[in-house]
Amino acid sequence: MSTQTTDLLDRIQDPETGREILDPATGERVGFAPQATAEDLDAAVARALAAQPGWAASGEDTRRQALHAAADAVEAHAEELARLLSREQGKPLNGPNARFEVGACAAWLRTTADLTLEPEVIVDDESGRAIMHYRPLGVVGAIGPWNWPMMISIWQIAPSLRMGNTVVIKPSGYTPLSVLALVEVLNSALPADVLLAVPGRGDIGDRLSRHPDVAKIMFTGSTETGKSIVKAASDTMKRMTMELGGNDAGIVLEDADPRALAEGIFWGAFINTGQTCAALKRLYVPDAIYDEVCEALIEVAKTMPMGIGLEEQNVLGPLQNRAQWEIVDRLVRAAKDSGARVLLGGDPDQEAAGNFYPTTLVADIDPQNPLVIEEQFGPALPIIRYTDLDQAVEWANALDEALGSSVWSADPARAVEVAARLVAGTTWINKHGAVDPRIPFGGARESGFGMEFGVAGLKEVAQPHVISQ
């Protein structure tokens, strides 16, 4: 570990009273996460509330410059942030992982800073003139996940600050050090008290959700936890953005070239070792090319090394925590017990150090098997055979989760036709999970509500105000 990384970790951790955080790949200690009290949270909200009017009054240009300066700071500390993230979350440095995530933080800050949200003229005729303005809400409470702790924190922080709000963020208890380090770096470029982090257990998140001085809650995480937050926040009529669980379907059409699409399908499913809400979690493949698709995916998967994140050759890592490992193991066992065919993986070393679960492909599985209908959130992909496209679409739309989906085809027009039949917040063509800070993103059904990214995302952290004359 570099001296710089050690210095950053020393500034954010609390060795005396903090909670020990272990590396999910090795079991070694990463550091000690501070544990906030209810009083600490109340004090942070009070500071953010006091700072918010001045931040809002500073003007758009000042806020844009501050976000660009924050992006500069992230880039200046990119390697130490990536190494800490790799040790705490488990994801490798390379591939679409730790260095990628830190780079995305800077990119989202810059793109969000440069978005323009102008007042909208609604009516301007002989009857009168009405203009929609967008004002800051006040204090935004952000509650983040453990799978992409830095990047998703920026998804919450950047638009909120851009619109003149202040932010109190509660990191996941699994990955608090990564977010605390990110906030430390961001605050080297931001005014005092516009961004405050309060690490702790679930009671801190619950108190933040209920706090009367918090105007909005942004949450990314499981549907179950999201429902609890919605209930907690409803008493004070808070605005909310909920990006919740997904069980994304991908449908391959008969005209697809299996070898041309195999790597894209692989990374759609296995990015961050499958620990992504909008990962491809169930793949429907027509009987005519089923075996070819399976073989192509096996060939790609075999080339992807899994191991300790700080070892440069690896692109897949461990599951972040043992509870998630046990979920994946249970679901794969259920598939095997049902007679499904394991093409690759599926036999973890129960005694090995770290939360490693092998890259697993499961074929000839019943469409109602638990591995298909429950979100696995790990490196196991069920591949479901179909003979009728209408049936595949019905299966894809059958679940309560509807975050993302994808269609894979050599015919873009045909793919778009099928995509239009799918229920999801986003449907990708010949890719899966490719988010962009300019393109709105959100879920349908129990995958949440509210939009992130782009101008639509700015509106979600603003109070619409119509002036009519």
UniProtKB/TrEMBL annotation:
Matching PANTHER family: ALDEHYDE DEHYDROGENASE-RELATED
Keywords for this protein: Oxidoreductase
Family per similarity comment: Belongs to the aldehyde dehydrogenase family.
UniProt key word Oxidoreductase: yes
Record domain Aldehyde dehydrogenase: where: 17-464
GO molecular function: oxidoreductase activity, acting on the aldehyde or oxo group of donors, NAD or NADP as acceptor
Protein name: Acyl-CoA reductase-like NAD-dependent aldehyde dehydrogenase
SUPFAM superfamilies: ALDH-like
Gene3D superfamilies: Aldehyde Dehydrogenase, Chain A, domain 1 (3.40.605.10), Aldehyde Dehydrogenase, Chain A, domain 2 (3.40.309.10)
Catalytic residues in the record: 243
One Pfam assignment: Aldedh
